[in-house]
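User: Sorry, folds how?
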Amino acid sequence: MRYPVILNYHNISKVPYAAGNWVFPFMFKRHIRSFLKKLRPGNPHYPTDLREDEFLITFDDALEGVYEYAYPIMDNYGIKGIVFVIVNFIGKKNVWDANFGFPIYHMNEKQIIELSDRGWVIGSHGVSHRSLEGLNEKEILYELEYSKKYLEDLTGRRVEHFAYPFGICSKRAKDMLMKLGYRYAYCGISKYKKDFDRYSIPRIPIFITDIFIGLKLRGFSYYLDRIFTLPSKLTPIYHKLSRYNIHESGGGHEQGKG
């Protein structure tokens, strides 16, 4: 079995859309049941203490489907998750996943606070969702420091977890993460690694194609995951070429839909 078993979801949605990093609610519920047959929930506050018979569930981007569908399903089984928030997109419409005319929204402040109050871990996914690789030190510091402070002020709790946008690790960011008080950072894909750096914790990415989730926990799927995640590595290039500039979008803290 792969280790660590830290699942990396993005969205739970009833409406299909082009990005492959989402699943239907009924699939997510089946996934949970399958995990619980062989594993038990770990403590999301301490991912580096995860045992081989434990699992964690994480969500990047803090999309509204996580609050609407994943949260009640997990709550029913007594499972707490980790959700990584992009500060400039709180309460706003997602602008990078093709959605066939059905807009996808990020969670608003009220929803984030509720998850935090219910024992979920709120982590940072940066301010603008730009890859840290390619940014200068001042820009990296802003992404890490401002998002941390904003989320701590919002929830009243320390923010110690960070997920690198697009799963792209940044060596320059590591020292900054440590100095700013982050204890954990996530990037890379789980295989069989027993020892890993707390600032490059690997995860298992989940896609709409993961119908038989039990197979996902076996080693051979590692190579498929590497292939399926290749498009996300091109997204930073798209951001540079596209017309919108999420770094300068600003004012991303207003309450949005829902």
User: Anything to note?
Assistant: The domain at 6-248 is CATH 3.20.20.370 (TIM Barrel). Residues 137-155 form the longest helix (19 residues). The chain has one domain: 6-248.
